[in-house]
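Kindly review these tokens for lecture notes.

. . .
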Amino acid sequence: MSSKRQKIEAEILKFRNEGNWNKLSESTANLSNKYGPSDGVVILVEAEIQLRSYFVDNPPRQENVSKARKDLAQLKSKLESAAASEVKDTIFDTMYESRILTCLLLYSQGRTAPCIELLRSINLDANKKKMSCYQLRFAAEAYAVKGLCLEQTKLKGSASTEEDILLCYDRSTEYSFKYMSLYSEQCTLNLSFGYILEQALQRGPLLYLKKGDVEGGIKKLRRILTAKETSCIHQKVARDMACVLLRGLCEENYFPPESDDFAAKNDKKIKRGRNGSASPTATFTISPLDKPFSPADSTQEAILLLLLSEAILNTDPILDMSPEYAETRKELLTDSKTLYDLLAVAVADFSQYDTFAKTIESSLKYAYDEFHLWYQYALSLVCAGNFNRSIRVLEECSRIRPDRPLPYLLSAKLCITRLGDYASGLLHSKKALQAASVTKDDEHDTEDYLSASHLCVGLSQSMLCTNGTSIEKLADYRQSAILHFSEAHNIDPHGVKPLLFLAVELALDGRIAEAVIRVKQALELQPHDLNCLHLMALLLSAEKHYKEALLVLDTAIRFYPENINLLLAKCKFQLHLGKCEDALCTCNQMTNIFVNLQEARGNQNLDAETMLERMTSDGRSITNYSIGNDLDVTDAGSVIGSTAISRFERAMSDMEPMSCDSTHPQSVTSVTSDPSVIRGHLWLLTAEVYLTLHRHEEAGQCVQEAAIFFPYSHEVLYARGRLAQCREFLSDAIAMYEACICVNPKHYKAMLQWAKIHVRQGDLEFAKKLLQDAARLRPWSQEVWLELGDVLETCGDIEGATDCITTAISVESASPIVPFTSVSRDL
């Protein structure tokens, strides 16, 4: 070989190994000028440059097959010409290399059969022991193409076996790693595998997993992930491996990553220590900082892999909205959706919703109109308890897909059940109803959306009836709520919720008989429904069938023995019927349940919300059994009104320091989800039972216990006033009632008891004023109207007294022992 040709071909090999196609073109041009354009090496290298450059813009995928057949038709003849030419004194194997490139070309054109035939005629391992860097790449690509073609022909019914395909992928992987190692020694430029080698590196481990060799597949995936040179495919490989760990691996079969290098390194440290070359104090000590982290289970490793994949994906995403990047953006969004779906599954076991929300937020910069990612972001914020922001995100989801009622429905639910913003809940509910009326969703039953939308609209209006709404609007809201609940029932005649909601609303409207009919229909559909049984007992108590009501409660308690809402109702029933000793036993039963659940919480890491769900049908309903004041009067039985929230949370400041801000009130749900609040209510209920039994000493001890949890609560102040009143300390009782009303101006029972004291002291005018205020707050309280009637009669207002007594009789005929709004109406 002439020295001139040798020098030029050495340059060509150097630039070829580096993948520097610009420099390679210049060197090839020099060779062409020296030996002519018909030289075999010139034709080969020019064809390779053209083929490699074409693959950069048009990867050999299935969707590019027709284009490749058209664009690369002439290139095939050029490669055949290079294979047929004879070149003397060259370091290139033009026959071998041109045939390998022809195989790559045939694969890109979808011609798998001729590609396989050509590969079988080539001895790919001829120079296995002394392959150059680029020959290793050729061998890796040849085996990769052969495996991909065999896999495609097998799908079409070929006789190819999995062993043949896996053998090709294994050898391709082996040559790829050798190529990577040699490339890193010789070149400083970034390594580019190309689409074909990337596919082979990924397909091999996945076929092992499909075959059932989970251990082998995972080891190969880990090997790819630990190689620095394969960083170009780390994102997809990490995601695929996480998918395997989450969905295809039993926890018992999990094995952690091996750390042989680390173990060998530590063995050397220990050996040096024994030989005296290291200090004695460090001989057998391994610093924790030197020890690499090793996942303890498959979920931990999956989360680490997904976070790695997410970091790579969002490092430099395509933000250019030009049409030429449309395909790249589409692929990016597809990868993002798959990645975050897997991450959501992984972090859900650890309840790390806030972390997930922060992670997915980084993808929104290129997914501004992708509904799926925005909706996932909204759901993660909901689970993390960030309700205000989640509603803003749900509004963005509605902007992207205004035809979908689901984001509106979720926003309405958050406004109603979490934030107590019933006006906004009504607005979102109406938008959901409008969207559900025109939507045509093939994946979901539109009737379900319509029924749910009517329920949300009706519940919002029902809550507005008892949330400071004017008397003029109250009747309209109530009748509209009844109509919407009825419509929901007509759309979904087999659903229990529409019947339950309708029965509660009819009961609140005083139509007890109609409510009984509806709740019986609901019980026919679902005989053991907790809320239906609860409501049935209250309706029977409103009809004065106390024995039957107590029997229904006992039946419900047998089905739900740990439900404190039912036990609280039973205790109230027993007090009303004069069974004070039985009521005391019920209080003890509730206390034992609470203690047992607290122990279970400590032993099984049971969180407060889960504990509350086991104890109550709804985390908010327990506030309705408040000893001093049934909060359903002004607060719809679920969430304390805006004024009461700030005062109530201020009273909770001892329980939750630095968390209650009167200027930024939280939902009562967050307060009552603390078990200490439930414990305080139980102590107050027990105190009321002891007061009924005239056991003032025990009642005082119970109030003192409740004061430990929230000493300045209006409930504790009221209980102290009742205790002082029973002990005939009237001045102390008045001070407590006055303080109670200062904390909660809508506490009607404190007004009633304060008025009774003034009646005894002869101050009828002030008592009359207090009772009138209480009647405005609690117009369906029989006790308030009777007391007001007695005061008016004493003052000589016989007509007014008659009206009050008539109203008391009318109210008493439809009043349950426990308010109807204590029944949970959970959307």
In short: Residues 3-229 form a domain with the Serine Threonine Protein Phosphatase 5, Tetratricopeptide repeat fold (CATH 1.25.40). The two ends are 85 Å apart (CA to CA).
